[in-house]
Each structure stands twice: as structure tokens, then as C-alpha cells.
Specification:
The complex is a heterodimer of chains A (about 210) and B (about 700). Chain A is globular, with a radius of gyration of 20 Å. Chain A has about 210 residues and is mostly helical. Chain A folds into 2 domains: about 100 residues, no CATH class; about 110 residues, Alpha Horseshoe (Serine Threonine Protein Phosphatase 5, Tetratricopeptide repeat). Chain B has 2 domains: about 80 residues, Immunoglobulin-like; about 600 residues, Maltoporin, Chain A. In chain B, about 5% of the residues lie in helices and about 55% in strands. Chain B is globular, with a radius of gyration of 30 Å. The chains are: A mainly alpha (about 210), B mainly beta (about 700). At the A-B interface, helix 1, helix 2, helix 4, helix 6 and helix 7 of A face strand 3, helix 2 and strand 37 of B.
């Protein structure tokens, strides 16, 4: 009996250790996810991104730290004014998203963020990059939607692309607005069972809904 | 037991992250490897964190642009103070690049001066690569040729390479004294590097300039493209699969309907008609390898009357049929993290059947170019490129059927090596050597090339280049004398470039020396030696700004050229007929969202060129009037999958004169009659509608080939 007790105690301790570690992972992730969602200076974003990179280096099987590092770098790119530096941040974002893809190649969120990075690439130099990257990011959003038809971010970004194109060509925006309506619906209904799943993008869809009115 | 597990000792680790100059680096990632423990450095580079880890741990410090710092620490509860000095990483993005003589254009690299798409949208060029590059400094406008004439060099001194492989003839055939267009459209390339001198030892057999084109990678979507042009039509289809893509295109050109509308200077019998087929295959292999195959055939014909200068009613019939076949296969693959191997083979087979009245000439040129290159880094400060190539040129000319063809076969075997040595992100030195063995003259030669670049700050940089270049004589001369030594040139270039945001300023000065130029002994074109020589020097300015005015992109180029040479039939050193002292271009592009259009204009000015008037005593002493041209183009995108393209050259209809032809014999009054070499028509108007059909209709497209 004594051995069994010892074993039980040991197992309990192990579980406690694991869940302690898990709690710490969740806690650190959540804290920094809030920062990348709300921060609007590079100085605030850099430490959060650094944290994600540290976690990513320690937790070798999780895509989320790489995902948020990529998201953070994307946000840094939007805060920067110099085009070459914008590109440098997007290079870092691309780097991180490729690592996330290596871990979870079929994760719709990861694929959608890759498309988002290409969208940001286009915005730096629309005339020369538009034809190449716009096509690519559209294709990537389609892939992300195919992987998870419920992913509101993938649908919302597709709507953005459709809207931009329709607006440019002065054609009706009905298709884009319909896609955006689906995205808004999914933002309400879609609940991932992953507590660290991304939740951003609602504001973007709301903004587009205003324009669609 | 519980206590021992949870109440581990806390170790405080603090210090400062600095660069080599001792300045603090803010935002650096400081952490213990494989743990969560760490922090980011503050605005002064200081950091402090605690860890409950014990024993031997690795402290890592990372920041973009610097090499990762690592140090083993022993954690035992006592505070640790450590400073991390980060070494700058030599990175392509931040480091200095050699810009002397070169205009790199790539969709992928940043801070680039000239982008691939710029070629397609430059007014006056009508999507011709050489036409667009003619708006850059270093080129001279030679309106009756259409080729690239660089820094006092003749048109044949510029060579074109696709994916590193030579094209023997990069231009379509054209009627005498009318401009020819490049064989390849700009849409198939993702990068263009146009060098007006001092280029890498990888490129040989080009005396003045190397135009290096890099074809696009795998296509992303399956699509069909239709083009309806005022001068013909084309259809292309692209099929995409998981790791590859294939594109095929058929193009038919017939200028007759257009010439029916607009009067031409040329007395056409049958204007230019051509049928062209192009095929492209892309396949990814292994982890990151890529195989590219490109094939092109084109059959062109035309016939016209040439009129005697003395008596217009005496005319000669001129017929030409040109068939061109080109295949290019190339591969690129990494060997490991540091080294890549690339290479390929190209094969050109071109035949001209020319009939002038009863005289028939068949000219055939075949060429093979095989090349293999290894590139990689020996360390983060030394990059090495080395490779070998074989260039075979086989030429024959048959005068009237049945006669024995006269020709030659030349084999050039070459090896090259080049090292880029960085002392920091601020300074790089490139030294290269190119060794060549020429089978005809049975001689081995070595040409050195050296470039240096220094970038003191973030925006400005100075570079210098020196190089020795050689090129075998033109077919028509080697055919007569296959012992002719190659023509030689030496380039000295000094360049300053300032790039800030989207504005670029460049100033470049150069001196070029020519030796061994082909010369007619006592004026006889059948007795040749290489006693010719010459020089070219000049100064060039370039300014580009696509920032100051919203939706506007413009550039201004100016080049001053002073050149003389003694070659061919020249009695002494003289300014060659293709050289103009002043070349000026301004290119303006305006994107107007309201009308979904990009409108562009180009103005070019070239000072008069010399020509030889046999009625004058002095050689090449007469001068043409200046050349001036204002062109317009308009790209309109009514729907995502339709592009309407309109262009018109020489809006003002100015009668530009490129030179004069003289009658070979004087008339009864002892005067050599002359006729001006003019533009085929004052203006060239082009209209094209390009339609892309694909499942995904919401994306803007450029033609795939």
C-alpha cells in the first residue's frame, strides 16, 4: 500500500507541476495577447513579441506563440512609417508564421494570418505589389476558409479584399458586403475550444459593415 | 519534498545590452534558453529579471540586425551582473550594396530604384524592355535601331541574359533603318538588372553592358489570357498544380491592317507578319529546388522595296524570313544552409533568309550556353561565387543556293570566381577574376573586376568599380577573319547614390577605354585587323520621386557623353554616328483612381548625332538636328480581369532625323545624293485589350507572358 500511496502522490505532484506550467503558459500568453491587441507603439509591442518568441523557443509544439509573435510584428509594421522598416517587420512576421505553419500546417488561423501579412505587403507599394500579392493573399484566404469555414477572420479579410477590388473598379460591392455579413455572423457564433484562439478582427468587419450601409 | 519542488532559489540577472559602439539597444530579447524566464531591454538597453532555474543555463540575447549573443551562466541564487555586446549581423537588407554602373529592378527586393513593372508602364516604350531602359542614364537614343547603346558603345556591345544564360539575338528582325523590338515581353520577368558597366565576372562576352533578366517563379492560379491588339492577337493558358505550373502562348502579329491606316515612310510589299509560340514550365523539386524550362519559336516575314537614293524610280525588292528557336532550361537548389548551386543550358537557332532581287543569302547562327554556378558564404563576412561556362557560337552564311557556306565555329570556355568581403554593414569589397579560353585564337585570357562600396550613413553611399571586358567580333567580321582577337574595354566608374524613403538621387561618372576594335586595313572591308581603339567618358544624373506628389511617380535622367573611336572604316578617331552628347528623359506616371487609369508620359531629348557626308572634307563632321519625342500611354482597368492599353509615340509628330544615307557614287555634278533616315511614321499608335479568364474574377492581372 505504501508504494501505491507514494505512486499516487507522485502522480498528483506531476499533474500539479504540469498544470502549474500550463497555468503559467496560459497566463503569460493571455497577458501578452492583450498587449498585442491593444498596444499602439512599437516600444510596447516589442517586449510582448519578445515574450512570445521566448515561449515559442521553450514550447516547441505549440503554434500559438509563433502566431502571436507574427501578429505582433504585423502590428509593429503598421506603426512604422519607413517602408523599408515596415518590410523588415513583415519579414520577421513571415518568419514566425512559417514556424507556426511548420507546427500546424492545417490551422486555419495560421493560414489566414499569412494572407494578412501579404495584404500588408501590398499596402506598402500597391502599384507594383498589387498584381502579385493581392492575388496570393486572396488565394490564401480561400485556403483558410476551406480549412475552417467558421473562421470569422479569414472570411472578414476576404471581404476586405473583395470590397477594395470592387471599389477600385467601381463595380457593385454586394458580394463583398455579403461576405462581410457572413463574417459578422461568424464573429458572434464561432467559439473555438482553444482558450488561446485569436479573437481579433471584429472591428475591421464592423468598419466595413458601416461602409456597406 | 513539496518544499523542494516549489520554493526554488531565485536568481536575479541584470545588465545592459549594447552594440559595438557601446550604445544601448532597446527592445532586445534577453532570456534563458528553453525557459520562460527573460525580459526585454529598456530604452537604455538595461535589463533585469529573476529566474528560479538552477545550475548551468544559457543566457541568450537577440535583436533584429544583430548576431545572437549566448553565454553559459551558473544560477545558484546569487545575483548575476552581465553585459551583452551584440555584434552587427551582415544582412542583405541593411548592408551596403554595389551600385556603380547598375540599375537593379526586382519585385522582391526593397529600396530598389527601378521595378520590373516600371518597364511595362513607361510611355513611349510600348512594353519593350530596351525602350523603357532607354529612359535611364547611360543609354543613348538611337531611334533607327531600337537597341540598347550604352556609354559610347555600339548596339552589339550590350548582351542579354535570361536566368543567367545568354541569348545570341535578343531582338526581333526589322526592316533596314527601322527600330527593332525585343523578343521578350517584360511581363515574364520578376527581376531586371541593367548594368551600364563594371558588372560581375559571371557575365562575359559583353563589352559595354549586361542586361540580366530573371524569369518569374511558379504561377499561382490557373487562368486563360486573351490579348486583342491593333497589330494582332494572342492567347495564353496557365495550368497550376501543387508544385509546379505550365504556361503556353500563341501570338500572331500582322502589321498590315495598321499600315493600311497610317502612311509609312517604307514602301512595303508585305509588311511584318509573325507567328510565335512560347512555353514555360516551372517545377519545384526537393525542399527548395526549382527547375525552369522556357521555349520560344518565332517565324517572321516581310518584304519591301528599297529605292535608289539617286533615282527613286530604281528600286530593289528585299525579302526576309527569320526563324528563331530558343530553349532555356535552368535549375537552382540549395546544397545546405550556406550554399546554393544554379545553372542551366540554353540553345539558340536563328536563320535569316534574305533575298535582294535575284541574290539570296542564308545566314544561320546556332549557339549553346551551358553554365554552372556555386554561391555561398564562407562566413558572415565573406560571400563567394564561382562557376564555369561554355559558350558555343556556330555561324554560316551561304550566298545563293548551292555555294559553299562560309562560316566558323567558336568555343569559349570560361571560369570565374568572385568574393564579396564585408568589413561591416558599411563597407564591402568585391574582387573577381574571369578566365576565358577562345578556341579560334587558341588563347587564354584573364580579366580582373573590382568594386568597392562604402555607406557611411543610412541613406547615402559611394561606390567604385573597375573591370576589364572582352567580346569576340561580330559574326560578319569573324567570318572574314577568324583569327581576330576579341575587342576589349576597361571601365572605371564612380557613383554616389542617396535613397531616402521613396526618393532616389544618383550621380555617376565614368571613363571607358576601348582596345582591339575591329579595323578595315586601308579601308577595305575584306581585310581586317584589330588595331582600332577609342574612349568614352561622361557624367550622369538620375532623380526619382514617387513620394512628394500623391499617386505620382516620376524620374528624370540626364547623361553627358564624350566619346571618340577609330574603328572599321574610320580614317582617324571620330565621334561615332550612334553617339549623342546629351541625352535627357523625363518619365511621369499618374494613377487616377477616379477613372481607374494609369496615365503616363515620357519626354526624351537627344542632341544631334554626327554623320559622314562624303561631300564634306572632314569625316563624320556633319550633325543631325536634335531628337525630341513626347509619348503618352494610358492603361485603363474597367474590370478586374480586363486591361485596356493605349499608347501613342511622338504626339507632336516631329520629323526626327537619325542620319543620312548617301549614294555610293556621285551624280553628274559630282555630288553624292543623300536621303534622310526618318521614323517609319511620325507616330506609332497601339491599342490592346487584355482579358484574363479564371475562376477567381476578383483579382487584377498582368499578362502571364
Amino acid at each position: 500500500m505504501k508504494t501505491t500511496n507514494m505512486l499516487l502522490l507522485f502522480i498528483t505532484l506531476m499533474i500539479t507541476q504540469v498544470s502549474l506550467a500550463n497555468d503559467r503558459y496560459q497566463e503569460t500568453m493571455n497577458k501578452n495577447i492583450q498587449i498585442v491587441y491593444t498596444a499602439n507603439t512599437i516600444a510596447e509591442l516589442q517586449p510582448a513579441v519578445n515574450t512570445f518568441e521566448r515561449i515559442a523557443a521553450a514550447e516547441k509544439t505549440k503554434w500559438e506563440p509563433f502566431y502571436y509573435a507574427a501578429f505582433g510584428y504585423s502590428m509593429m509594421s503598421t506603426q512604422e512609417t519607413d517602408n523599408a522598416k515596415k518590410d523588415a517587420y513583415l519579414d520577421q512576421a513571415m518568419n514566425a508564421i512559417n514556424q507556426a505553419k511548420g507546427i500546424a500546417p492545417n490551422e486555419s488561423e495560421v493560414v489566414a494570418l499569412e494572407g494578412f501579412i501579404y495584404m500588408l505587403r501590398v499596402s506598402i507599394d500597391p502599384a507594383s505589389r498589387g498584381p502579385q500579392y493581392a492575388m496570393l493573399s486572396m488565394k490564401i484566404f480561400e485556403t483558410a476558409i476551406a480549412l475552417n469555414p467558421e473562421n470569422p477572420r479569414a472570411i472578414a479579410m476576404k471581404a476586405q479584399m473583395q470590397f477594395g477590388t470592387a471599389q477600385f473598379f467601381g463595380s457593385p460591392t454586394t458580394e463583398a458586403c455579403a461576405t462581410n455579413a457572413t463574417a459578422l455572423e461568424k464573429f458572434t457564433t464561432y467559439k473555438s475550444d482553444n482558450p488561446l484562439a485569436p479573437v481579433w478582427g471584429r472591428g475591421m468587419a464592423d468598419g466595413l459593415a458601416e461602409k456597406c450601409k | 519534498m513539496l518544499a523542494s519542488l516549489t520554493a526554488a532559489a531565485q536568481t536575479k540577472i541584470s545588465g545592459r545590452v549594447v552594440d559595438q559602439a557601446g550604445e544601448g539597444i532597446p527592445g532586445a530579447n534577453v532570456f534563458l534558453f528553453d525557459t520562460y524566464d527573460g525580459t526585454s531591454s529598456d530604452a537604455d538597453g538595461n535589463f533585469e529579471f529573476t529566474s528560479s532555474e538552477t545550475g548551468s543555463q544559457v543566457l541568450a540575447v537577440k535583436f533584429v540586425g544583430y548576431k545572437e549573443f549566448q553565454q553559459v551562466l551558473t544560477l545558484e541564487g546569487k545575483a548575476i551582473a552581465i553585459n551583452a555586446s551584440l555584434r552587427e549581423e551582415i544582412s542583405e537588407l541593411q548592408s551596403v550594396t554595389i551600385t556603380a554602373g547598375s540599375f537593379g529592378a526586382s519585385d522582391e527586393s526593397r529600396r530598389t530604384i527601378f521595378r520590373a513593372i516600371d518597364i511595362a508602364t513607361t510611355a513611349g516604350a510600348t512594353a519593350d524592355i530596351a525602350g523603357a531602359l532607354n529612359t535611364l542614364p547611360g543609354t543613348q537614343k538611337v531611334g533607327e535601331s531600337g537597341r540598347l547603346f550604352v556609354r559610347g558603345g555600339d548596339g552589339y556591345e550590350t548582351k542579354t541574359f535570361i536566368d543567367g544564360l545568354l541569348i545570341l539575338d535578343a531582338y526581333n528582325p526589322s526592316a533596314p533603318n527601322t527600330p527593332s523590338r525585343g523578343r521578350f515581353l517584360p511581363f515574364m520577368f520578376k527581376g531586371t538588372s541593367f548594368s551600364t558597366g563594371g558588372y560581375s565576372s559571371e557575365y562575359g562576352q559583353a563589352l559595354s553592358s549586361a542586361l540580366v533578366l530573371e524569369s518569374k517563379d511558379k504561377a499561382e492560379i490557373t487562368r486563360t489570357d486573351l490579348g486583342i491588339l491593333s497589330v494582332g492577337g494572342d492567347v495564353a493558358h496557365t495550368q497550376v498544380w501543387d508544385r509546379g505550373s505550365a504556361t503556353g502562348k500563341i501570338q500572331y502579329t500582322n502589321i498590315k491592317p495598321y499600315y493600311g491606316l497610317i502612311n509609312q515612310e517604307i514602301d512595303w510589299i508585305e509588311p511584318f507578319v509573325s507567328l510565335e509560340g512560347t512555353g514555360v514550365i516551372r517545377q519545384k523539386v526537393g525542399k527548395d529546388g526549382m527547375i525552369k524550362v522556357f521555349g520560344n519559336f518565332k517565324q517572321s516575314t516581310f518584304s519591301l522595296y528599297e529605292h535608289s537614293i539617286q533615282d527613286y524610280n530604281t528600286k530593289y525588292r528585299y525579302d526576309l524570313t527569320n526563324s528563331f528557336r530558343y530553349v532555356n532550361g535552368s535549375y537552382k537548389q540549395s546544397l545546405n544552409a550556406n550554399w546554393i548551386v544554379r545553372g542551366g543550358v540554353s540553345y539558340t537557332d536563328e536563320q535569316d533568309d534574305i533575298n535582294i532581287e535575284q541574290t539570296g543569302v542564308v545566314e544561320r547562327e546556332k549557339g549553346i550556353h551551358a553554365k554552372s554556378v556555386f554561391e555561398g558564404s564562407l562566413s558572415d563576412k565573406v560571400e563567394l561565387k564561382t562557376g564555369g561556362e561554355v559558350i558555343v557560337r556556330d555561324y554560316s552564311q551561304e550566298l545563293n543556293a548551292g555555294n559553299v557556306p562560309i562560316g566558323f565555329q567558336e568555343v569559349i570556355a570560361a571560369g570565374f570566381a568572385e568574393a564579396d568581403v564585408y568589413t561591416s554593414n558599411k563597407f564591402v569589397a568585391r574582387t573577381g577574376l574571369r578566365g576565358e579560353y577562345n578556341s579560334l585564337i587558341q588563347k587564354f585570357s584573364v580579366d580582373p573586376r573590382i568594386s568597392l562600396a562604402y555607406r557611411p550613413g543610412a541613406v547615402g553611399q559611394v561606390s567604385f568599380a573597375y573591370g576589364a571586358f572582352r567580346q569576340s567580333g561580330k559574326n560578319s567580321y569573324v567570318q572574314i577573319n577568324d583569327r581576330l582577337a576579341p575587342e576589349k574595354a576597361q571601365h572605371f566608374i564612380l557613383n554616389y547614390q542617396h535613397v531616402e524613403d521613396n526618393r532616389t538621387f544618383r550621380i555617376e561618372t565614368y571613363y571607358k577605354r576601348y582596345d582591339n576594335l575591329v579595323k578595315f586595313v586601308d579601308g577595305s572591308p575584306t581585310d581586317l585587323n584589330t588595331s582600332g581603339s577609342g574612349y568614352a567618358k561622361g557624367i550622369e544624373l538620375f532623380w526619382r520621386d514617387n513620394q512628394s506628389i500623391p499617386n505620382v511617380d516620376y524620374w528624370i535622367s540626364y547623361g553627358y557623353l564624350d566619346t571618340k573611336r577609330d574603328y572599321l572604316n574610320y580614317p582617324h578617331q571620330a565621334v561615332p554616328t550612334f553617339a549623342s552628347a546629351h541625352n535627357f528623359s523625363i518619365v511621369y506616371k499618374h494613377f487616377i483612381q477616379k477613372i481607374k487609369s494609369q496615365v503616363g508620359t515620357t519626354y526624351s531629348f537627344t542632341s544631334g548625332r554626327p554623320y559622314n557626308d562624303p561631300n564634306e572634307d572632314k569625316f563624320n563632321h556633319s550633325k543631325t538636328p536634335y531628337y525630341s519625342d513626347l509619348s503618352l500611354n494610358w492603361s485603363y482597368l474597367p474590370k478586374p480581369y480586363i486591361i485596356v492599353y493605349f499608347s501613342c509615340t511622338n504626339l507632336s509628330g516631329r520629323d526626327n532625323i537619325f542620319g543620312y544615307n548617301f549614294s555610293p557614287t556621285p551624280n553628274d555634278d559630282g555630288v553624292y545624293a543623300s536621303r534622310a533616315i526618318r521614323q517609319p511614321a511620325p507616330r506609332f499608335v497601339f491599342l490592346g485589350i487584355f482579358i484574363t479568364l479564371s475562376k477567381d474574377k476578383s483579382v487584377t492581372q498582368l499578362p502571364s507572358l
